[in-house]
Amino acid sequence: MRLKGQVAIITGAGSGQGKAAARLFANEGAVVIIAEWNEENGKQVEEEIVAKGQQALFFQTDVSDEENIIALVNEVMARYGRVDVVFNNAGVGFSSSSKFKMDRLTDTPLQDWNQILAINLNGVYLLSKYVIPLMKKQNGGSIINNSSLNGIIGVPGADAYTASKGAVVALTRVMAVDYGKYNIRVNCICPGAIDTPMIADVLKNEAFSTAFTSNPLRRVGKPEEVAHAALFLASDESSYITGLIMPVDGGVSAQ
Ligand SMILES: NC(=O)c1ccc[n+]([C@@H]2O[C@H](COP(=O)([O-])OP(=O)(O)OC[C@H]3O[C@@H](n4cnc5c(N)ncnc54)[C@H](O)[C@@H]3O)[C@@H](O)[C@H]2O)c1
Q1: Residue among 194, 203, 245 whose CB has most ligand 1 atoms within 8 A, to mutate
Q2: Does an H or E element contain 60, and which?
Q3: Which pLDDT value is given to residue 97?
Q4: 18 CB near ligand 1 (under 6 Å)
């Protein structure tokens, strides 16, 4: 019960890494707020957790929409009166099913560029903006941002995504520096290829699949492996850690 009684907002918790974190955090005693824009998936995760006798609440949220974020935070405060943990995990990524064009800079329409940044970067900014004042009043909290390997090394072909994730790395550092004095810790996970719906179609392509498994551990990661890193950063076990940029990538960034 490493998060017993704590209130944890997880964005994008209807799928993949966010879903794995929702299950894990609930198992560890947290009240999990599933801030997800896909209603069917978000509700399904809520039902699954509640059916186990654990606590979860689905709140339909678009992380890029400020009014949505305000409504989310107001609802959580009205029901639970605090926010201890935020996992800024929602994102749109390099996927053949993506509705945005993930391509090199010169081949990326401005509209797609703006929308990718609005979700992957502004989403982190907006939720953090509204929870940090609450965490200040509570004398602490833990914010975990989900960036990407793309945020620390240049992976060709998804430049808006890469820019958004690099910005999340930089933002994590400055948030850690600005809010450390309030006992608010801000850390960042940089996953390599993780087997979630985001890259399911891409993994079917042999060339990509080979690239994604040519890391020291010779395999793609599981969403639960990212969730465990997030749990460590959420819990008091990491109480002296802030501003950490943590690759969870099978060793790709060590090569
Ligand atoms: N899968 C990978 O290989 C990989 C690698 C590095 C980083 N990441 C990052 O990890 C995070 C989680 O991705 P995943 O792999 O679990 O993918 P996923 O597609 O399974 O899950 C992403 C979730 O975010 C939700 N979402 C997207 N936009 C949203 C919005 N505007 N508001 C609210 N919810 C929104 C989606 O509906 C979905 O449920 C993302 O930020 C992604 O960029 C993924």
Answers
A1: 194
A2: strand 55-60
A3: 67
A4: yes
